[in-house]
Amino acid sequence: MRLLLVEDNQELALWLSTVLQKDAFHVDCVHDAEMANALLGDERYDAVLLDLKLPGASGQSVLRRLRRQQNQTPVMVLTASDSLDLKVECLETGADDYLVKPFEIRELVARIKALIRRHSGSATAQISCANLNYDTNTRQFQIDEGTLALPPREHSLLEALLMNQGKTMSKASLMQSVFGLNSDTGEDALEIYIHRVRRKLEASQATIVTLRGLGYLLTPRRSA
Fold this sequence. Notes:
By secondary structure, this protein is of the alpha/beta class. The chain folds into 2 domains: 2-120, Response regulator (Rossmann fold), CATH 3.40.50; 126-220, Arc Repressor Mutant, subunit A (Orthogonal Bundle), CATH 1.10.10. The protein contains 8 helices and 11 strands. The chain has helices at residues 10-22, 33-42, 59-68, 84-93, 105-120, 152-163, 171-179, 187-200; strands at 2-6, 26-30, 47-51, 75-79, 97-100, 126-129, 132-135, 140-143, 146-148, 206-211, 215-220. Strands 2-1-3-4-5 form a 5-stranded parallel sheet, sandwiched between helices. β10 (206-211) and β11 form a beta hairpin. α2 (33-42) runs parallel beside α3, α6 packs across α7 (171-179) and α6 (152-163) crosses α8 (187-200). The longest helix is centred in the middle third of the chain and has 16 residues, at 105-120. The radius of gyration is 18 Å and the shape is globular.
């Protein structure tokens, strides 16, 4: 799961990024509205963690711009203000959740996962494609009752495809999910990981389909 953290307190941003990465999130971090707007215009994220007090422009302006562009990426506001009026304003502008600092990291992680689940259309922690199942709480894959253990990058690849099943994911989007924003890894490396995951899905009823010129799609395997 790929997150954008927008936080001007660099010490807090570093701590949050480190903690979330230990929970297997990919985190891109920026410290102002301009960079946040640039990344949200070019990149795909599973959720945005947005501070309101930013240099140059406010977090509310980032949120308004995002929604004006019809970008429905889930947004969680992180702020030191417990003002009810501000909370209502953010929610009416298009925020999906609002968490007041200081907060417990366990609550933050649980809320992020719930936010992403809701956005993917799942009311529970379980997301499935045919007999391939994924628990967003434990971050484990299963085929029927058996655990499918994957190395980190293969895990990130299959997670991204499963969380977006039914949608075509471009090579660029998948590469960001697997290798991160600043990686200079080539597309050949992504194709290697696609091949490896495909082989490990052979025992399942789910498969990765290549749509030439468009990207990849996780879908139930067609009956012969």
